[in-house]
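Z., the sequence and structure:
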Amino acid sequence: MEKLGRLITAMVTPFNEEGEVECEQAKRLALALLNSGSEGVLVVGTTGESPTLIREEELRLFSEVKSAVGERGTVIAGTGSNSTAEALEATKEAERIGVDACLLVVPYYNKPTQEGLYQHFKTIAESTSLPCILYNVPSRTVVSLSADTVIKLSQIDNIIGIKEASSNLGAISKIISNTKKDFLVWSGNDGDTLPILTLGGYGVISVASHLVGNQIREMIYSFINGKTSEAANIHRRLMPLVNALFIVSNPIPIKYALNHIGFNVGKPRLPLIEPDEKSAVTIRDTLKNYKIDLNI
């Protein structure tokens, strides 16, 4: 499953002025990301505003982006839900469309037990031949997927990895130490990428790679090739940008940043709104200090 890529961008969903999904711009963005360091794209994740997309929009995005990307990179579909039945059906539809893998977020709001989480992910994985990536993001889901549950789930053949956004390096270390070598751990937070790589993690599903994909890729491969000082230098240099891109809830800052540099992706959908002026100033001022890799 290493073919999925070490650097995957959690892609924003472009909207037009009426707030409708703009598939042509989504395809253009996916190709631009692949041309600026990304090895794959995640469609309809948190950054893609999955909570406010309807199923028809999601499936169209999976289809349109995969048709544009072809074999140039991987397309991972965000098919998770707090409803097992809905996640199962979305995953089956994504498989029919022909995506390369699916991302399954920890169910949110209903606060399942660890056994409930195990049964949820097991049920979905057994319904598909797609590679399944777990997604642990307790700041949004309330419940965190425990290391022990991840280890247990890793024994299911097509659960091939996890996007870890808990920032719990102890738990992440336990996962890496107690799963097979081919179970991959991607950082779910840009600021945690290098620390997770040092623990034996695989890569990152990134937000900042919309803007500095080549630089993040250089950091990852510098570390892998033993150039740890170079990797650390890049990590430190990028941290002010990472902080600015999370000054308010993602994807508000990254959408604002993309629009500001001239790649129009529209406003976020309600209940998300554009950043307040103080946050916008911070984003604009921070961008001035960076070379932008994305081809506008």
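The mean pLDDT is 97. DSSP finds twelve helices and eight strands in the chain.

Let me know what you think.
H.
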